[in-house]
Amino acid sequence: MIFKIFKQFLSALKWVLPSPFNFAVFLTILSFILAFLVGKPADESAIAYFSQLALAWFEGLWSPPFLTFSVQMMLILVLGFALAQSTLFEGLILFLIKRFPNPRVAPVLIVLMSTFLCWLNWGLGLVFSALLVRKMGEYFSAGQIPFNYPLMGMAAYSGMVIWHGGLSGSALLKVAEKGHLNELLPAVFGPDEVLSIRQTVFSAGNLCTSLILIFCLCGYFFWMGRKDKGLVLEIHAKRFAKWEHGKGSGAALLEYSAIWSKVLALIFLILFILIITHFPLGLNPNTINFGLFILALGFHQHLHSFWQALRKAMPAVTDVLIQFPFYFGIFGIFKASGLLLWFSTGFVELGSAESLPFLSMLSAGLVNFFIPSGGGQWVLQGPVILEAAHQLAVPAPKVVLALAYGDELTNMLQPFWALPLLGITGIKPQDLFPYAVPVFLIAAAVFSLSLFFWV
């Protein structure tokens, strides 16, 4: 009975959910309206103020740092897709799948991998869990085995509800940098004062929160996997011939040389090792992309199959190319109109020492709905909650974690970060996101309880 009601709820959500592009457009329109209602000076004409907002939106669309980030995301998608099509990687994935051949248990395996890898690094977890879903789908499809492909995709995306409390959390890493807190609030924090990752990422409260959340998510996906058997789908694997006719002669033979592609991969690997051993770059989009490039190049049969895989992957980046700039434009509107600070201070001013962390989580979740950028959100919203924490004598690590929880929580309702996963798997967003609502509710309950009782 409960499952039937739940399925009707999922069907209703599919009907009302817009496409990711329309979602971005609706948020843009709403941002203009809110900015006009909240931020317009009384002595300024409506046309002049609207022109300023339009300029802020336009400059946000083409902001160089944001465009750099868009290219990084597109490369993660294309290189990850190319890696998934390599013979060796396919063999490794099949080795894992054959040890967990039951499609009802598959979502649990995927959510464990996704949450663990996203806790280590969000980009790594998002790409590789998406690749695992794709290959699992191809495997079950080839065997004519019924499976729930959107549920598996949601299991992969669930890692984005835990990433900001992990080792790649933007806010948690920034407050651990020497001088950052002093730069934000010089009256509160000294030049050498930091909030180390021992106080945030590796605190007992945060680790407990992460483990409880993973356990609850595993229970949800295990229940759904047992109840919903899914359908027999056709997901075609893309394979490339080792040798092709018309391969040319002379220097063109290098394109089909297995040895040459491996030599190139080895050269790039040596360069990569030299760089990361001498400079503390860490895991970031650039290092992940270069690592994916080396793996894809080395795992493919030759350069020609590698380039074929890249060309096949290019249509999957269309959503990222077109939709990401819209969110950067929204960021421009929020910054120029003061909406971001308005949202933040509005919640924080209502807080007491007991409720401030919870209200900080709510404000961060609301802002993330419009501006899904952990780092950018922290720079503008962080000083507000830190100042409030200082005035109410709330431990600073607690409100920093609260902002991180809010930022990652509404990822489950925001399609921004799902675009790479949707591109790799081919899952429709209307099929994926109804399964995200229970994940959102589970995470909201765990984060709320943790902020009141043990963080």
Query: What's the order of the H and E elements?
Result: HHHHHHHHHHHHHHHHHHHHHH
Mean pLDDT, to the nearest integer, reads 84
Count helical runs: 22
What percent strand? under 5%
Radius of gyration: 23 Å
Describe the global form: globular
Runs with pLDDT <50, length 5+? Answer: 239-246
Taking the sheet with the most strands, its summary is:
none
Keywords: Membrane, Transmembrane, Transmembrane helix
Protein name: Short-chain fatty acid transporter
InterPro entries: SCFA_transpt_AtoE
Pfam family, one: SCFA_trans
Task: Name some characteristics of this structure.
455 residues; transmembrane; mainly alpha; transmembrane helix; globular; 22 helices; single chain; Short-chain fatty acid transporter; SCFA_transpt_AtoE
Question: What would you say this structure looks like, in words?
Answer:
With 455 residues, the chain is mostly helical. The protein has a domain at 253-314. The chain has helices at residues 2-16, 20-39, 46-61, 64-84, 87-97, 106-120, 122-142, 149-157, 170-174, 180-184, 204-227, 258-278, 285-299, 303-313, 318-337, 339-348, 356-370, 374-392, 396-409, 419-425, 429-432, 436-453. Helix 4 runs parallel beside helix 13 and helix 6 runs parallel beside helix 8 (149-157). The two termini are 37 Å apart.
